[in-house]
Specification:
Layout: E1 2-5, E2 8-12, H1 22-30, E3 62-67, E4 71-76
Length: about 80
């Protein structure tokens, strides 16, 4: 996953670097609920953004996210 704010790269991480592998997260979630198409498993975010870094979105900032093999999306911030 790569994330840019106003063209500045803020995140560049891989799921391979996660504490719990994706297959373990899916197994744990599906052991307590039936997962359906469209369900989202939120895992948090890699370092590089947020209050811990002193970065906050401002009105008009443009956020772009790319996930290899999935695609990308760009959105303006309305905060």
């Amino acid at each position: 996953m790569r994330l840019w704010v106003n063209g500045e790269l803020r995140q560049d991480e891989s799921t391979a670097d996660m504490i719990c592998p994706v297959d373990q997260l899916i197994a744990a979630a599906s052991s307590v609920v039936t997962l359906e198409p469209g369900d989202v498993i939120a895992t948090g975010t890699p370092a590089g953004v947020g209050a811990g870094q002193g970065h906050f979105l401002r009105h008009g900032d443009v956020v772009r996210v790319t996930i290899d093999g999935l695609g990308d999306i760009t959105n303006p911030s309305w905060t």
